[in-house]
Fold:
Amino acid sequence: MELNVEDWGVVPYPEAWQRQTEYFNELVFAKQGHGRCVNRIVLCQHPHVYTLGRSGKEANLLLTEAQLERIGAALFHIDRGGDITYHGPGQLVCYPILNLEEFRLGLKEYVHLLEEAVIRVCASYGIMAGRLAGATGVWLEGGTARARKICAIGVRSSHFVTMHGLALNVNTDLRYFSYIHPCGFIDKGVTSLQRELGQEVRFEEVRGRLVEELRQLLEAQVPSIG
Structure:
């Protein structure tokens, strides 16, 4: 079993989507007996962009096309679950492209694993994060009026192969979230590691911690990997 990590740096969203799709199709094809299965964890950042999932509502974007252009952002309708979210500089985006059957995971357990990895990363910075019932992702003070999301999660799975993934706000410009109802919510906030800690965080350090947590959690599903 292979689990490779790739860092794409800052990459335009359409290019990342195309490259993800190619890896996804390769893995589905390999599962059908055509070559070896290669699982990947892809990390990157995107220029300012909003993505709208299959079940999303365009009304959750609060800008016109002209206003989008003025703030240097674009909108893409994509094939993951979930509603609208934002990607931009200072946000750590992670696209695991995995054969869930190799890791003995169902889709629900996989999403739970992604959340757990981010919860552990937050804990390593002294931030208590957790889950919120009925709302995928990672939250701070989720059961209170101060509930705020630090990480959005939206995945696609077909033939038990995944794409898309998570977006963790590290040093993200949170003003861009004010132009949307993030993930369809109108009564909850958004935060970042930088906001919670009161200082900029070393991006490469966060990336390394996330990769390590994902590796450990995935390898724990299949003890023989390594």
Notes: The helical segments are 13-31, 65-70, 107-124, 193-197, 203-221. The first helix runs from residue 13 to 31. The chain has a mean pLDDT of 91. The CA atoms of residues 41 and 96 lie 4 Å apart.
